[in-house]
Amino acid sequence: MNHDPLHPTEPLRRWRAARNILLVRLDNLGDVVMSTPAFAAVRHTLPQARLTLLASRSGAAALAHVPMLDDVIVYDAPWSKGSGAPRGPESVEADRALIGQLAERRFDAAIIFTVCTQSALPAALMCRLAGIPLRLAHARENPYDLLSDWVRDTDSPETGMRHEVARQLALVAAVGLHPRDDALVFRYRVDDVLAARAKLAAAGGDPMRPYFIVHPGATAPSRRYPAARFGVAAQQIVAATGCQPVFTGGADEQALVDEAAAGLPGALSLAGQLSLGEFAALLAGAQVLVSNNTGPVHMAAALGTPVVDLYALTNPQHTPWKVRSRVLSHDVPCRNCFKSVCPEGHNDCLHKVEPQAVAQAAQELMGQPGVVVPLPVQARVSVVPAL
């Protein structure tokens, strides 16, 4: 069935009867977070359904932090960039094993979430082979029987793209699934608050004083603002506000964090020290996040933390969703290249943003910090099951 996303159909009876639903989102954690309003639409419209996420290793970490999910299946798809999936015969066996697992779980329906530069059809074929009767996705070409419910893909880098959140909400709306609201969702536990507070203190920080977070990493080199410039901007923010600078990143980003924090007295580094829940708790209490366009931006948006987003113009559809923010970039003719490494070799869309502009944006979002509720704002704390 072809659904026009501009004219959503009435809720379909066969989708209303689904009780065991597979949500397919095979890219990164940030993409999963941007899909949470669509997940919430499924949960709100079908409250009795069990929702299982099929995700990459990165995306699967969302299970403990997205309360509408009941379960997760980890699958590193060979057609998904940077998935780490095995190649050759091992990959084929992994694919067969997944199809068998999906068949055993007897899903009633599958919803396949993709960006417009991805094809949903490999996942649609696997779901069809697993005997899942309802299969919903965007597709540019006619999928025929690969999808039971086809939403024609109208997004294009050349002529315009919806925000990723809006795209996924439109997908589920095509079969009558609507949320209470379109907010991003990310939760953490009280234990995460206590652990984040302890680690901040152990690093030399004062959990009772205002702080801001600088996150200089990103998976794609094309999306990284120079680490040293993050440090310059942080120095200016400290001088103007007196807030504590806290640098974060994965263990594999330690060198970037060290470069960004070098020469900044009082800089606090928690790189490689935080669990995902602890990082969320830290984000929730921050005055502002200063970051490249990467997963923490979408986590911050879900938590209501203001964001200064150093936004490489590789993709247009991933700006911070419904949170106070400043999106900084320098316009270039090669915008919307969708490349992980700058094809021009200059990264001008980021490199021509001056640190002073970054610091000014942060100060505008922070105002005069003054006295704040210590880490984090209590109203943002939710208790969710552990993994």
What does this structure look like?
This protein is an alpha/beta fold and 387 residues long. The protein has two domains: 2-173, Glycogen Phosphorylase B (Rossmann fold); 190-375, Glycogen Phosphorylase B (Rossmann fold), CATH 3.40.50. The protein has 14 helices and 13 strands. The chain has helices at 13-16, 29-34, 36-45, 57-60, 89-105, 121-129, 164-173, 190-202, 227-241, 254-261, 276-285, 295-303, 348-351, 355-366; strands spanning 2-3, 20-25, 50-55, 71-74, 109-112, 134-139, 149-152, 211-215, 244-247, 268-269, 289-292, 307-310, 325-328. The strands form two sheets. A seven-stranded parallel beta sheet has the order 1-7-6-5-2-3-4, sandwiched between helices. Helix 9 (227-241) links the parallel strand 8 and strand 9. Residues 4-10 and 369-387 have low confidence and may be disordered.
A few lines on this structure:
The chain is α/β, with parallel strands linked by helices and 387 residues long. It is 34% helix and 14% strand. The model is unreliable at 4-10 and 369-387 (pLDDT under 50).
